[in-house]
Amino acid sequence: MVAENHGVQAMQNFIDPVAKIGRNVKFGHGVRVYGNVEIGDGCTIGDLSVIGYPTYRPEASPLVLGANATVRSHAVIYESSTIGPYLETGHHVVIREGAVIGENLRLGNFSDIEGSCEIGDFVRMHSYAHVGKGARIGDFVWLFSLTTLMNDPLPPSHIADPVIIGDMATVCVNAQIMPGAVIGRGAMIASGAVARGSTPACAVISGPDGENVGPTRFVMHMQSRTRHPWYKHFSDAYPERARDRLIALGAAIEAEAAALLNE
Amino acid sequence: MVAENHGVQAMQNFIDPVAKIGRNVKFGHGVRVYGNVEIGDGCTIGDLSVIGYPTYRPEASPLVLGANATVRSHAVIYESSTIGPYLETGHHVVIREGAVIGENLRLGNFSDIEGSCEIGDFVRMHSYAHVGKGARIGDFVWLFSLTTLMNDPLPPSHIADPVIIGDMATVCVNAQIMPGAVIGRGAMIASGAVARGSTPACAVISGPDGENVGPTRFVMHMQSRTRHPWYKHFSDAYPERARDRLIALGAAIEAEAAALLNE
Amino acid sequence: MVAENHGVQAMQNFIDPVAKIGRNVKFGHGVRVYGNVEIGDGCTIGDLSVIGYPTYRPEASPLVLGANATVRSHAVIYESSTIGPYLETGHHVVIREGAVIGENLRLGNFSDIEGSCEIGDFVRMHSYAHVGKGARIGDFVWLFSLTTLMNDPLPPSHIADPVIIGDMATVCVNAQIMPGAVIGRGAMIASGAVARGSTPACAVISGPDGENVGPTRFVMHMQSRTRHPWYKHFSDAYPERARDRLIALGAAIEAEAAALLNE
Questions:
Q1: Pairwise CA distance, residues B193 & B207, whole Å
Q2: What mean pLDDT is reported for chain C?
Q3: Which of A2, A86, B251, C214 shows a CA-CA span of 20 to 30 A to C44?
Q4: CB proximity B185 to A under 8 Å
Q5: Structure pTM?
Q6: Are the CB atoms for B44 and B66 separated by under 8 Å?
Q7: What torsion, rounded to 10 degrees, do the Cα atoms A165, C127, A44, A13 define?
Q8: CA-based nearest distance C100→chain A, Å
Q9: Of C11, C48, C226, the CB nearest to B157
Q10: Nearest to C136 by CA among C103, C106, C114
Q11: What pLDDT, on the 0 to 100 scale, is given for residue A14?
């Protein structure tokens, strides 16, 4: 059967010999690696993942996947993106072309990074997080489950108005970030909230009208008396090399927010 | 090992020799094609996809996949559906059995078409769009990310009350269409809105109570002075063969909406 | 090519010979089964699934997958979970480690069970249902599409406050269950609602503020004059062995709710 031969052939060719593969790279079962790819040392590519998915553009730059990535099963990462070291993905993620991603991004299952976006260092996303094309995301940002960063203000149109998410902002479960929104550093978009326009540093945005309900330092978990800003009680969740940087950045953002309130 | 043999055998048989495969069909790596399948000429089946997933019904009709489809990786398409030419899917999509789909459907990553539905020509869906069983979707419809077309009015029950989405309607990010809703042609269900009951042609439906906030022609993007109806500034996003049809349909729908307002 | 050898080797080893595989187990195409796994008799493992995904913890207990499971394609199930008989999954699901799951769980496409949770018997979930770590879910519960069971009350923090969902509760499309919520038996969280705190048995919770709008027995589908509680008209949707149990449990929960109202 000709059709069957097609398949068997493809199976045997699943890692393109022109792909540049670093040292100590581990491949799972059934992985496909296309040719326009540079995989750093120490990466682990999970079962049934596809790395360097082609855009079929003649000028496409390679996927540059930094060292020590852990890519879990059924992931799809396109060519023409640049990803810093220590990427860690859940299962079934998609990262499209043209993304420029910093160090130690962690993606939840089923996250969808639509490409041509910028993502800082130590960003964390949970399941079904959706980053629309062209978004710019700072360092230490959190996008929880079912959050969407939109980009078309008049759907459907050719107008691109992607969002900007400041350093250390947290976007909680099922919050939606409208096209063109600029989320201030350290801001918190509450669960189910809709954020539009500009959000001040360290503001809490709540509800479908995106009301600014006060500064994040008033957000507290009563039983444990734990309160925001979160970097004070959560820096140990990051790799050691990130902690001093997180704490310094957190203090700078608090100073920015305090200055805004005093104006 | 018996277990290991199981696997190796399956690998070698992954394109069933009784499947009808057209000319110039390209298969990625690790694809499985079941037997009850007719794949048109010029299709591309992405890596690790499964085509013709069996329903195990003895009378199951074949999957008829029209010519020139582009199916991206990790897709699942069942037997017993009929899909027009130029299907284009994202990654990790599911299309269940019993769907009757027109020309040039485009599906975002992780879309879920639950089957026994009708989808017109040139429909576009974004990530995590979910089409409940039995939905009827017109031509040139848009379903953006995280939209759900429901069908059970008293969950859980045996009552099926699927939705109808008129031609050229747009359902924006995270909007939910309640069971039995009938969305008028050219209507716009705003981001986060919940639509119930009947929606007039070219109405804008907004908020959790599904308020009709006016006609789509008042929806405008201020900075660019671009306004709805969208077909006037967006027809070039479609294949050339679709454009005259889109423009004529758009004009007819505007006339329908104007007549409704004059009544 | 060394890289190519890596791949081919992995392909041939995709069912680990130390995995314990029951009788009459069927494997699809391209499945990977890791070693720390016990698969019961009569299971069917769909194409391109990964079973027993390792946690890389030295003390990890095996995945125990009960008899007669139907796992559909592209599923991922970790080691260290225990799953009762007659599991039935959609496509692209993820079940993490540490889950203790009863009989005949049915999961929709793209569901995400984050692990260390308890799930009772005969639970049903639809697409994109997301069970946060540590959740406890009773018997005969329904989680419809896009529902999230959260667990961090001060995101991001180390505080874990998972939810509890009582027997026979229904969580409708796009409803969100806030951290620490305790949903009473037989309660109904309406589509789009947000549930916080404690919900009485058989209460209907509606809207973003989680208002208790009355008992479920007042919820009716007018045209068909079908009404809640749903077990009275829907027990035939379950396997025969479950029906008497469902009906007895439903009556007990109604008595509990009536007693609450009379207090």
A1: 4
A2: 93
A3: A2
A4: no
A5: 0.95
A6: no
A7: -120
A8: 20
A9: C226
A10: C114
A11: 82
Q: What is the pLDDT of residue A29?
A: 87
* Tokens representing residue C262 in the block: 């009379």
B137 neighbors B123 (Cβ within 8 angstroms): yes
d(CA A69, CA A86): 5
By the CB < 8 Å criterion, does C12 face chain A? no
- pLDDT per residue over A139-150, tens digit each? 999 999 999 999
Tell me how far apart the alpha carbons of residues B119 and C46 are, in angstroms, rounded to a whole number: 28
Q: Of chain A residues 104-123, which have a CB less than 8 A from chain B? A: 110, 112, 114
Q: What is the ipTM of this complex?
A: 0.94
Residue type, position C64, single letter:
V
Query: Is there a contact between B189 and B183 (Cβ–Cβ < 8 Å)?
Result: yes
Contacts of C153 in chain A (CB under 8 A): 221
Question: Six-digit token pair at A33?
Answer: 């690696």
Distance CA A26, CA A51 (A): 13
Q: Which residue of A has its CA nearest to B129?
A: A128
Report the distance separating Cα A13 and Cα A3, nearest Å: 16
Query: Which partners does chain B have (≥3 C-beta pairs < 8 Å)?
Result: A, C
Q: Record the tokens describing residue C198, joined without a space.
A: 């404690």
pLDDT digits (tens, 9 = 90+) for B204-258: 999 999 999 999 999 999 999 999 999 999 999 999 999 999 999 999 999 999 9
Gap between the terminal Cα atoms of chain B: 76
DSSP H helical segments within chain B, as ranges? 2-12, 231-234, 240-262
What sections of chain C are H helices per DSSP?
Answer: 2-12, 231-234, 240-262
Alpha helices in B69-219 (DSSP H): none
